[in-house]
Design goal:
heterodimer, A: mainly beta, 6-stranded mixed β-sheet, B: mainly beta, 7-stranded mixed β-sheet, 4-stranded antiparallel β-sheet, globular
Chain lengths: 113, 110
């Protein structure tokens, strides 16, 4: 119930392509869904986040699509660049659990030049 | 911008030593968190604190303790370091709903 399942584990995309990472959850009490980007040797950095009352949120080349009925959300990186090569984590939290984040297992993205 | 700093980027300690990892945030946030990150296991919550002197166990608290004497500072303590505590340790601070992470401390226990 508390898990967030993330796929794929790794992803290779050509420069200019679209990177898509998917996450699924079970607990309908989750009400906040952030995505984090982590470069090697660094801490995760908040990339973009969404609440379940909207179906899509876009910030620059990064878009979250949210499907409440399917309990799924995904990150789309448009026009992927080699500088986007990093590990991406989805997460979920809810007010009742002291805002603790439940993280997905991570996706290692490699964008080839 | 939220700033979360951690006292050391790299640390090497010996088995049995007492280890202190410090985290400081500059945004007057109430909630702070300690995670460890290991390959294949993702980020796992060790402890969190929702106010000064208040703490709660996360998913893997065994072998660790924490201290929160001031709002901006949250310390993770390894009472007697063991080799299986070799890991990347990440501190985070909660602002509104988002958690903001520090750069991490890579701890090696020999």
């Amino acid at each position: 119930q508390q898990q967030v399942k993330q796929s794929p584990q790794s992803l290779i995309v050509q420069k200019g392509g679209i990177s898509i990472i998917n996450c699924a959850y079970e607990n309908t009490a989750f009400d906040y869904f952030p995505w984090y980007q982590q470069f090697p040797g660094k801490g995760p950095a908040l990339l973009i986040a969404i609440r379940p009352d909207v179906s899509e949120k876009k910030e620059g080349r990064f878009t979250i699509s949210f499907n409440k009925s399917a309990k799924q959300f995904s990150l789309h990186i448009m026009d992927s660049q080699p500088g986007d090569s990093a590990t991406y984590f989805c997460a979920a939290s809810m007010v009742d659990s002291s805002y603790k984040l439940i993280f997905g297992s991570g996706t290692r993205l490699l964008v080839r030049p | 911008d939220v700033k979360v700093t951690q006292s050391s980027r790299y640390l090497v300690k010996r088995t049995g030593e007492k280890v202190f990892l410090e985290c400081v945030q500059d945004m007057d946030h109430e909630n702070m968190f300690w995670y460890r990150q290991d390959p294949g296991l993702g980020l796992r919550l060790i402890y969190f604190s929702y106010d000064v002197k208040m703490k709660e166990k996360g998913d893997i608290p065994e072998g660790y303790s924490v201290s929160r004497e001031k709002k901006e500072r949250f310390s993770l303590i390894l009472e007697s370091a063991s080799t299986n505590q070799t890991s990347m340790y990440l501190c985070a601070s909660l602002g509104r709903r988002a958690q903001y992470f520090g750069p991490g401390t890579r701890l090696t226990v020999l």
